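Title: Request for sanity check on Transporter substrate-binding domain-containing protein prediction

Description:
We are preparing a figure and want to confirm that the structure record we downloaded matches what your pipeline produces today. Could someone re-run it with the sequence below and paste the raw structure tokens into this thread? We only need the token string, no images.
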Amino acid sequence: MYKKLAAIAAIATLSTGPALADTLDDVVDRGTLRCGVVLDFPPIGYRDANNEPAGFDVDYCNDLAEALEVEAEVLPVTWAERLPVIVTGRADVVFGATSDSLARARTVGFTIPYAIYYAQGVVNKDSGIESFEDIRGKRVAAAIGTVPEQEWLKIAAEWGEEKNYQGYQSENEVFLAVAQGKADIGITTNTAILPITQQYDSVVAGPRMPWTTDYTSVVGKREDVTWLNYLNLFVTHQVRSGRYDELWGKYVGGDAPELRIPGVMY
């Protein structure tokens, strides 16, 4: 009799155990959406004249918070911190121009693309760099943990010029190194060229890099399928509503690039 009662109690305990809350529930219950955003990536993420977070990614964070009817909290992160803030639970989502590589997908979850970039250099005006081939023998800088760094190091290895590479914690440090002549070229994305060349008199637009277009995604917890599904719906809604085109025009200018990857169905 006692064994039977114990078995029934065990089954009841298993069936009535605490439900696992997902990020969507956590955000709504908390009343705050914590967004990791890279703020040294103008005009996508930066600080305005009042030192407040601003840019394309910041507006996306605010739009998502509005859709969830919660407050937005922007957490400034470096390029290298984009994945750790999700894994450790410091942020609910990251808007940070993050490429959806298979290696990264073992650690965090990705949405469908929400922005597209291509890599381009900013060069010191006295560097003599006009074409991609002109980079041979020059000092190259990029932010640590970014696709430009990863792709450039492959080329540097082929050229035997790894010693000429300089890695920095932030893109602002990369741009400053180029402006001061400590590096000949800094590799960034096309969207950063105009504001950086306007900021520094000694920096001009450089050549485009040869690797492929960079499709970037919103980042969330890998195991939280409900949250990733919601984020995918949000990205889709931004496009359908015209908000994506509006914000791209506001911060970058020109027509917003097509987010659909050729030959891939979303």
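Thanks, this matches our download. Confidence is low (pLDDT under 50) at residues 1-19.
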